[in-house]
Write a structure and sequence with these properties.
alpha+beta; 3 helices
Protein backbone atom coordinates (compact mmCIF):
# COMPACT_ATOMS: atom_id res chain seq x y z
CA UNK A 1 0.00 0.00 0.00
CA UNK A 2 1.44 3.41 -0.91
CA UNK A 3 2.08 6.20 1.54
CA UNK A 4 0.54 9.64 1.31
CA UNK A 5 2.54 12.74 0.46
CA UNK A 6 2.80 15.78 2.70
CA UNK A 7 1.54 19.14 1.40
CA UNK A 8 5.14 20.18 0.63
CA UNK A 9 5.71 16.90 -1.24
CA UNK A 10 2.49 17.41 -3.23
CA UNK A 11 3.61 20.91 -4.25
CA UNK A 12 7.11 19.70 -5.13
CA UNK A 13 5.63 16.88 -7.22
CA UNK A 14 3.35 19.29 -9.11
CA UNK A 15 6.26 21.64 -9.75
CA UNK A 16 8.53 18.81 -10.92
CA UNK A 17 6.11 17.65 -13.63
CA UNK A 18 5.56 20.61 -15.96
CA UNK A 19 3.35 19.72 -18.85
CA UNK A 20 -0.10 18.20 -18.63
CA UNK A 21 -2.54 17.48 -15.84
CA UNK A 22 -5.98 15.87 -16.19
CA UNK A 23 -8.87 18.23 -15.41
CA UNK A 24 -12.17 16.56 -14.49
CA UNK A 25 -15.46 18.45 -14.69
CA UNK A 26 -19.03 17.18 -14.80
CA UNK A 27 -20.88 17.30 -18.11
CA UNK A 28 -24.51 18.31 -18.53
CA UNK A 29 -25.57 14.66 -18.74
CA UNK A 30 -23.80 13.74 -15.49
CA UNK A 31 -20.75 12.02 -16.94
CA UNK A 32 -17.20 13.05 -16.01
CA UNK A 33 -15.46 15.15 -18.66
CA UNK A 34 -11.70 14.49 -18.35
CA UNK A 35 -9.16 16.31 -20.48
CA UNK A 36 -5.39 16.83 -20.41
CA UNK A 37 -4.45 20.48 -20.03
CA UNK A 38 -1.33 22.53 -19.33
CA UNK A 39 -1.02 23.80 -15.78
CA UNK A 40 1.01 25.67 -13.19
CA UNK A 41 0.74 26.13 -9.44
CA UNK A 42 0.45 29.29 -7.35
CA UNK A 43 0.33 28.53 -3.64
CA UNK A 44 -1.87 25.48 -3.19
CA UNK A 45 -4.04 26.25 -6.24
CA UNK A 46 -3.68 24.81 -9.73
CA UNK A 47 -4.17 27.10 -12.75
CA UNK A 48 -4.84 26.07 -16.34
CA UNK A 49 -5.10 28.20 -19.46
CA UNK A 50 -7.56 27.50 -22.25
CA UNK A 51 -9.69 29.09 -24.95
CA UNK A 52 -12.94 30.71 -23.90
CA UNK A 53 -16.18 28.94 -24.83
CA UNK A 54 -14.86 25.40 -24.34
CA UNK A 55 -16.89 22.53 -22.91
CA UNK A 56 -14.87 22.50 -19.68
CA UNK A 57 -15.82 26.14 -19.04
CA UNK A 58 -19.49 25.39 -19.71
CA UNK A 59 -19.29 22.48 -17.28
CA UNK A 60 -17.70 24.67 -14.59
CA UNK A 61 -20.40 27.32 -15.05
CA UNK A 62 -23.04 24.66 -14.26
CA UNK A 63 -21.10 22.90 -11.50
CA UNK A 64 -17.85 24.41 -10.19
CA UNK A 65 -16.75 21.26 -8.37
CA UNK A 66 -13.73 19.87 -10.20
CA UNK A 67 -10.63 17.79 -9.72
CA UNK A 68 -7.19 17.58 -11.26
CA UNK A 69 -5.03 14.46 -11.32
CA UNK A 70 -1.36 13.92 -12.05
CA UNK A 71 0.55 10.65 -11.88
CA UNK A 72 4.07 9.61 -12.82
CA UNK A 73 6.21 6.51 -12.64
CA UNK A 74 6.78 3.29 -14.51
CA UNK A 75 6.83 0.57 -11.85
CA UNK A 76 5.44 -0.08 -8.37
CA UNK A 77 8.62 1.31 -6.80
CA UNK A 78 8.34 4.79 -8.26
CA UNK A 79 4.66 5.45 -9.00
CA UNK A 80 3.33 8.56 -7.31
CA UNK A 81 0.42 10.82 -7.93
CA UNK A 82 -2.01 13.35 -6.63
CA UNK A 83 -5.70 14.11 -7.06
CA UNK A 84 -6.81 17.56 -5.96
CA UNK A 85 -10.51 18.23 -5.49
CA UNK A 86 -11.90 21.73 -5.17
CA UNK A 87 -13.99 24.52 -6.57
CA UNK A 88 -13.08 25.85 -10.00
CA UNK A 89 -13.15 29.54 -10.85
CA UNK A 90 -12.90 30.88 -14.40
CA UNK A 91 -10.98 34.09 -15.10
CA UNK A 92 -11.75 36.04 -18.28
CA UNK A 93 -11.03 39.68 -17.36
CA UNK A 94 -8.05 41.10 -19.32
CA UNK A 95 -6.16 42.15 -16.16
CA UNK A 96 -6.48 38.63 -14.69
CA UNK A 97 -5.52 37.02 -17.99
CA UNK A 98 -2.40 39.16 -18.27
CA UNK A 99 -1.39 38.56 -14.65
CA UNK A 100 -1.86 34.78 -14.96
CA UNK A 101 -0.20 34.47 -18.37
CA UNK A 102 2.82 36.39 -17.04
CA UNK A 103 3.01 34.22 -13.93
CA UNK A 104 2.67 31.00 -15.94
CA UNK A 105 5.43 32.13 -18.31
CA UNK A 106 7.64 33.20 -15.39
CA UNK A 107 7.24 29.75 -13.78
CA UNK A 108 8.26 28.15 -17.10
CA UNK A 109 11.48 30.13 -17.01
CA UNK A 110 10.65 32.88 -19.51
CA UNK A 111 12.93 35.89 -19.04
CA UNK A 112 11.34 38.99 -17.52
CA UNK A 113 11.81 41.03 -20.70
CA UNK A 114 10.06 38.30 -22.73
CA UNK A 115 6.91 38.03 -20.59
CA UNK A 116 3.55 38.78 -22.25
CA UNK A 117 2.56 42.44 -22.26
CA UNK A 118 -1.11 42.04 -23.09
CA UNK A 119 -3.85 39.48 -22.55
CA UNK A 120 -4.45 36.96 -25.31
CA UNK A 121 -7.91 37.57 -26.84
CA UNK A 122 -10.33 34.67 -26.50
CA UNK A 123 -8.51 33.03 -23.64
CA UNK A 124 -9.48 32.06 -20.11
CA UNK A 125 -7.81 30.64 -17.02
CA UNK A 126 -9.25 28.10 -14.63
CA UNK A 127 -8.21 27.91 -10.99
CA UNK A 128 -8.96 24.82 -8.92
CA UNK A 129 -8.75 25.88 -5.27
CA UNK A 130 -7.49 22.98 -3.19
CA UNK A 131 -10.09 21.59 -0.78
CA UNK A 132 -9.15 17.90 -0.59
CA UNK A 133 -5.96 16.11 -1.60
CA UNK A 134 -5.60 12.40 -2.28
CA UNK A 135 -1.98 11.38 -2.88
CA UNK A 136 -0.01 8.18 -3.29
CA UNK A 137 3.68 7.40 -3.32
CA UNK A 138 4.66 3.75 -3.69
CA UNK A 139 8.20 4.56 -2.54
CA UNK A 140 6.81 5.44 0.92
CA UNK A 141 5.40 2.86 3.32
CA UNK A 142 1.64 3.13 3.77
Amino acid sequence: MPGAMTNDEVNAFLDSRPGWIVLNTMSKDGFPHSIPIGYFRIGDDVYMGCRSGTQKLKNIARNPKASVMLEAGSNMGDIKGVCIQGVATVFTEPADLLRLSREGARLRGVAEDQLPTEARPGSAYIRVAREKVISWDYAKPG
